[in-house]
Design brief:
Number of strands: 13
Structural class: alpha+beta
Distance between the termini: 35 Å
Strand content: 35-45%
Number of helices: 5
Order of helices and strands: EHEEHEEEEHEEEHEEEH
Length: 205
């Protein structure tokens, strides 16, 4: 069910962003660039409980150390549909690169892939190849989605957010563990990409 509510995944505190001043000196000196799809578990009080690299790109050693940089980052805690703090899970692409280098240019052009892709008859804007919507999901301890709410979306994509939430209730997540203990529940954001039938066929040729 899609509703206007308080369900919210964690967001990085804008006052504590990771920037050029955080670039490790040894990798900057050697013009190394790296990226990783990372998973961060944020506690109900906004602290990082765990971070791991799910997929890495660029310099292997550097990419395997990107989680360490997250320790200086503060997060806005996740909220359930009643506005109460809850565990949050963030899966995002994190990049650090030196512009103008071959490796840096490769990392700079990486983009986070959608979590789910759905094919529809047509899109609201015919000139677009796809439409992305973001939804926040509440997941219980067994991995079942119990609630879904869209992030603030333009009116043109509101119906697609509803479709995304219907599909989300069919998902089953793996249990998320901290030191072998499953979280009692968590909120996670998902990017759902809608592809028009003709564009989907074109990408598979």
């Amino acid at each position: 069910m899609l509703a206007a509510g308080l369900l919210a995944a964690p967001l990085p505190n804008p006052n504590m962003q990771i920037g050029p001043s955080n670039y490790p000196a040894n990798y900057l000196r050697d013009e190394k660039s790296a990226a990783a799809v990372i998973e961060i578990i944020v506690t109900p009080d906004g602290k990082i409980a765990k971070c791991r690299e799910l997929k890495t790109f660029g310099d292997e050693k550097f990419s395997n150390e990107l989680c360490k940089l997250q320790n200086s980052r503060a997060w806005r805690r996740a909220l359930d549909e009643n506005g109460q703090p809850i565990y949050g899970v963030v899966r995002t692409l994190f990049r650090m690169f030196v512009p103008g280098t071959q490796q840096g240019n490769y990392i700079a052009h990486l983009a986070q892939e959608p979590d789910v892709e759905l094919t529809v008859n047509r899109l609201p804007t015919p000139i677009a190849n796809y439409l992305d919507v973001r939804v926040s999901l509440k997941v219980d301890a067994s991995g079942v989605v119990t609630n879904c709410e869209a992030r603030a979306e333009p009116a043109i994509s509101a119906n697609y957010a509803r479709i995304a939430c219907v599909q989300a209730h069919q998902l089953k997540f793996d249990r998320v563990l901290i030191e072998g203990v499953a979280l009692p529940g968590f909120v996670i954001e998902q990017k759902v990409r809608f592809m028009a039938e003709n564009s989907a066929a074109a990408t598979t040729r």
